[in-house]
Design brief:
346 residues, Four Helix Bundle (Hemerythrin (Met), subunit A), seven-stranded mixed beta sheet, four-stranded mixed beta sheet, 11 helices, globular
Length: 346
Amino acid sequence: MSFRTIEWRDNTVIMIDQTRLPAEEVYNVYTDFQGVAEAIRGMIIRGAPAIGVAAAMGIALGARDIIADTHESFFRQLENVCDVMARTRPTAVNLFWAIARMKRVAEAHRDQDLNAIRAILKDEAIHVEEEDREICRAIGKNGGPLIPEGATILTHCNAGALATAGYGTALGVIRAAHEAGKKIRVIADETRPWLQGARLTAWELMKDDIPVTLISDNMAGWLMQKGEIDCCVVGADRIAANGDTANKIGTYSVAVLAKEHGIPFYVAAPVSTLDLSLDSGAQIPIEERGSAEVTHIQGVGIAPEGVKVRNPAFDVTPARYVTAIITERGVAREDYLRSLRALVQG
């Protein structure tokens, strides 16, 4: 990739500022966990896997800066760092997966001195990032064969390198098909209100010379009806045990349209996005964000002042609309209760 979404360098965390793309390619440097938490909350970094990586690195920064004479004091303050991270965004399960992972690593080395624990947490955060890139490659390898030669693929939001540590989940599948020599093209819908499809997905694919066409969100049904879309590939922020999938708002609409037109609808996500503790998508917490994201675009008002706004950041696609779920460990199909559990159990 010609850019890095997030990396640990010289004891700082560096992220590409996704709020400024595609106009500017700017990298922000974070020196403390509070800054990382605010970057997650403010969408400077977004996408479930990338949020997980950021949380791990934020915790490593927090652990480095803890001043403590005893293990009891250190672990009490570390818990506070983790709590700050956990309060950033509620829907993406990778956030909580990464927090739990860092806690487990710290507890597993509780018998070591504090500087050793700090170093171990830093190494673990770096490993989370490296591991995520490998996982995305594996997702691409498993999903690429599902993409037909000559296919036109609709994708929603951005589930690419910008949403991960690199390569991407949904875009990882698309990249793998492209790298295999398949003559494919992509339709990216704009994805209101943050325009991740227009700003981020189109930018990524153009950098990789993968043919991409941008549409507004309300055009997908017409293109499906005209036979101009062969399959859909999206990412996920949390997948329940039954296969119900939370992803960026608007995903459900695309899935219903795909089902109506007999078009395969694939979800690409790492196993860490599976939340088998939830029986169904009805239990997935859905983040509601501020009204200005809907009433304004890049600071310019587009709606009457004072109008009431709903702004759920995610919706839930019932499993019956999902053709398959592509992970690094393989491809799950119905019955998802059985197939997803089999993937998690390895």
